[in-house]
């Protein structure tokens, strides 16, 4: 595999790196971890991360995609859509059409594109069964587009590791540090990087499963502390990323 020269990551909070921090509190995330691995293999990689929490498919299509393509990347990672899956209302079909347009635009650039199917939220989130239909629809769209355009596809939906509680942060939607390491390993496998394999998807046989009582208490706390504020924010039209800028808005050395 030849090395990449310019890598741009686009998306929302997952790509921004929420809940994955280094010793000084700075965000890391799977995209940073993937960039570091690529730079180790082929030093000199230029890397930008345009992702911002709260962004939906339309936001990425209108803002991040043009900025990313202006940098002439030869590698793009895109993980986007969960904020559309969880959004109240009937605009989901429009979001899926926007996703098709987004993918077609990236494909026309000639860059290598890595995209990601979402995990089975019915296994991790208390209201996951309510969202399961939308997750299936967006995953079908992602998978079909990846095959049509020749993208590298990460399948989180069928990975046993994605069902383990410690893969996720307290909100059960964003990856923990362990989760981001697994996401980066999955992208490395999709790219066929030396030393990569499918081990990231395997379940940890030593992982402890919570008792029914612990699970019930955890679900109640999640509903109170995570779901209710999220729905209230949607009703008020408040985005978690309002006013935030990308943390790596320009191409720069990975360690820069």
CATH C-level category: Alpha Beta
Q: How much helical structure, as a percent, in the residues?
A: 40-55%
At the third CATH level, what is the topology name? Rossmann fold
Q: Helix tally?
A: 8
Give the ordered list of helices and strands.
EHHEHEHHEHEHHE
What is the structural class?
Answer: alpha/beta
Largest sheet: 6 strands, mixed
Structural shape: globular
C-alpha termini separation: 25 Å
The strand order across the widest sheet is 5-4-3-1-2-6
Describe the structure.
- Residues 9-182 form the SGNH hydrolase-type esterase domain.
- This is Lysophospholipase.
- The protein has 256 residues and is α/β, with parallel strands linked by helices.
- The chain has a single domain (6-202, 245-253), classed as Rossmann fold, CATH 3.40.50.1110.
- It has eight helices and six strands, in the order βααβαβααβαβααβ.
- It has helices at residues 13-16, 29-41, 57-70, 82-85, 92-108, 128-149, 177-191, 212-236, and strands at 6-11, 46-49, 75-79, 112-117, 152-155, 248-253.
- The chain has a six-stranded mixed beta sheet with strand order 5-4-3-1-2-6, sandwiched between helices.
- Helix 2 crosses helix 7 (177-191), helix 3 runs parallel beside helix 5 and helix 5 (92-108) runs parallel beside helix 6 (128-149).
- It is globular.
